[in-house]
Amino acid sequence: MTPPPVRRIAADRRATIAPQPLPTNGSHAQAPPAGPVTRGSSRPERQRVPAIERMRTEQLVLAYGGKPAVKGVSLPVRQGEVLALIGPSGCGKTTLLRSLNRLTELTPTATRDGKIFLDGQDIDELEVTQLRRRISMVFQQPNPFPMSVFDNVAYALREQGKKRPGKRELMPHVEEALRRAGLWDEVSADLSHPALRLSGGQQQRLCIARALAARPEVLLLDEPCSALDPKSTEIIEDLIVRLREEVAVVIVTHNLQQAYRVADHVAFMYLGDLVEYGPTEQVFHAPTQHRTREYVGGAFG
Ligand SMILES: Nc1ncnc2c1ncn2[C@@H]1O[C@H](COP(=O)(O)OP(=O)(O)OP(=O)(O)O)[C@@H](O)[C@H]1O
């Protein structure tokens, strides 16, 4: 198939949301180590789910002030699968992830070439608020709003409708989102509880519930466990694997063991290039590129 013509996107829009804070070294223990994946590494059995392509990037190029950060990446994103973006620091993982719902447009120096399609439609043809409803993102640091558990999830629902639905009307939807995020049992007794008083892991699941409430087709996760303790990490990894049945999931992670545990496909990036893309077992145990072999073997990080 001939790739569609390349088009430059204006990136002069000023940021309208605050940048996400970086994770702090708080009281939580660190998530499982990002060590190399060996043949003995565990990968939980997973149910086979039919894969449906929801997104595709074609010859995607992203640059900051003219300096390329992502260089001509073509990738599919499928529902029924988790796609992990891996690679050393600065290789362009987060830039690629943020471009999928046009968050890179909030960076004034960022420019983009190439195409991104959502269900076959060029994302530049979609209204950006609508697009970000269909492609939700969860960030490194849990960032619940300073309001109740209920209102955090209801926020996304209230934003959707023209008329503001009442609490009773919203309740089933809030419950459903909290259940899908695996948080309902822990918070259902008091939905008026302030979100900021939940544990870090609970806060991140609340952010996932908030992201799911608008029923997105694609869920983008930027190192969602990097600020969490091992137990919370495990809970969220289980959740990610379950969620892929109903939403396409793309995760950026530095933790190779995590990519191995949760992903169905892996994209390894290096200096902005997509070096290798393939099924998880293949990328980790039979990579075709020597650079991938070195990286997954722990030769550099
Ligand atoms: N807002 C920005 N302005 C200028 N350069 C940027 C900006 N954001 C990222 N970059 C540069 O783009 C390149 C890719 O960065 P990006 O954050 O996408 O990589 P990454 O693989 O996600 O890194 P990390 O794993 O450390 O988060 C790096 O060289 C980085 O310095």
UniProtKB/TrEMBL annotation:
The keyword Glycosyltransferase does not apply. Keywords: ATP-binding, Nucleotide-binding, Translocase, Transport. CDD domains: ABC_PstB_phosphate_transporter (cd03260). Residues 1-49 are annotated as: Disordered. Coiled coil: none annotated. This is Phosphate ABC transporter ATP-binding protein. Residues 55-296 form the ABC transporter domain. GO terms for molecular function: ATP binding. Pfam families: ABC_tran. It comes from Svornostia abyssi.
